[in-house]
């Protein structure tokens, strides 16, 4: 695990809060009987996640070690939530020039 800078703390705390909320939600749903871990179609193993995001299992394990990918760990097993993986992929989207241009124009207009 790499050392974190003070500037990284807001992002780290945000990520931790999101993960805790997801865990609490899953625990509530399991306790209420709404879902069981085996019956949840959004819950995926490393191999299933590998196929979904088209990365090797080894690459996924290395990303988990570096905290670069959203993961849930139960004992020695890793589980992935499909919606979180898809959101993680979307978060890496590169904006087009026209999107960047419109953002700049909106910021300039808001200053006036």
TrEMBL record:
Pfam families hit by this protein: HTH_17
Domain of life: Bacteria
Domain Helix-turn-helix: 43-92
InterPro entries to which the protein is assigned, alphabetical: HTH_17, SinI_DNA-bd
Protein name: Transcriptional regulator, AlpA family
């Amino acid at each position: 695990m790499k050392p974190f800078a003070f500037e990284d703390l807001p992002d780290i705390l945000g990520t931790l809060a999101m993960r805790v909320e997801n865990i609490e939600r899953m625990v509530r749903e399991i306790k209420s009987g709404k879902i069981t871990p085996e019956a949840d179609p959004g819950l995926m193993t490393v191999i299933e996640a590998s196929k979904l995001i088209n990365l090797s299992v080894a690459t996924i394990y290395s990303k988990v070690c570096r905290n670069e990918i959203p993961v849930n760990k139960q004992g020695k097993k890793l589980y992935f939530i499909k919606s979180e993986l898809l959101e993680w992929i979307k978060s890496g989207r590169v904006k087009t020039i026209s999107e960047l241009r419109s953002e700049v124009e909106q910021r300039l207009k808001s200053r006036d």
